[in-house]
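Need tokens for this chain, all 174 residues.
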Amino acid sequence: FDFMIELKHFFEEWGHAQESIFRLELLPEYNVPGDREFFEQWKQCPVDFEEVNKEWFALLRQTKERGVRMQRVRVVPDPLTDYIRFEFDFWKHTEKYGDEYYILRDKDYRAIRAGFDFEPEDFWFFDESALLVFHYENGDLAEERRIIDPEIVAKHKDLKYQLLSAAIPVSEFA
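Here are the structure tokens for all 174 residues:
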């Protein structure tokens, strides 16, 4: 995997996860290395997602085989952008590896967000105990922060469940 910054905890936490991995994706577009080029290629012609992203699909397969549940909530704008459509095409391939995607409209996210006393950023949550917040600048991953404060972790756990209860599976999203 090619990242602009060194991920100090992500792959360690992923490898240690025993029950669950959760991801909240908030940005309208991501500009991490590889993704932008992948997106531009997709706009021109069909893409073999599994060939281009072999390492990611192998990681998903191994995680599913370990019995770890992987869930994501993707907040989407209205109307949908080409970038979100690109992601939809990609997600069709990840589902068979156990990566469950849920969609939440931005207006619905904002309503949930209003009930919290913090401004969430993109985050990964491993076994509901290890919290990694990803800070982006202009769509580029700028910082990975490991959060250990029990109060902040509890708030993110509550946010996770509220988001999942309001979101719909990508397969049902029209």
